[in-house]
Design goal:
By secondary structure, this protein is mainly beta. Helix content is 9%, strand content 35%.
């Protein structure tokens, strides 16, 4: 059985990057922690909300790497002098990745009530019509 790729279709030129993007997204293997929501807040704007109870602002890092929004959390382990009778709240680290389309810009990040909100805006490109001159060969 042959694998169909976007390069197999002669009318789809220059979409190799999209194919790599789809493969990268499928391989990302994000677990279910921390849980998150994605909502559309208006026409062309979105908000990603992660439940990060127990994390402080300095425990979190938000970066954009190769058109990918990466949110990392790592809690400082300050439990050396504490004795737990039961420990049900895990202090584990996480990494969540979201692939961004061209034209999506990351705005501000807000932390409130154990929720991290990251705002995104979709910039609308202007429609460009280009006329190509034909020269004699």
């Amino acid at each position: 059985m042959t694998k169909l790729t976007l390069g197999s279709y002669p009318h789809l030129l220059g979409f190799e990057q999209l194919e790599r993007l789809l493969e990268r997204t499928a391989k990302s293997g994000n677990e279910g922690y921390p849980p998150f929501n994605i909502e559309q807040t208006s026409e062309g704007s979105y908000r990603i909300t992660l439940a990060v109870a127990g994390f402080r602002e300095q425990d979190l890092a938000i970066t954009v790497e190769d058109r990918q929004l990466v949110i990392r959390g790592r809690q400082q382990d300050d439990i050396a002098d504490r004795i737990f009778l039961h420990r049900g709240i895990a202090a584990r680290q996480f990494q969540r990745s979201f692939v961004l389309a061209d034209g999506v810009e990351v705005g501000e990040a807000i932390m409130e009530n154990g929720l991290l909100h990251v705002d995104l805006t979709l910039l609308r490109p202007e429609t460009v019509v280009q006329t190509i001159q034909i020269r004699k060969g």
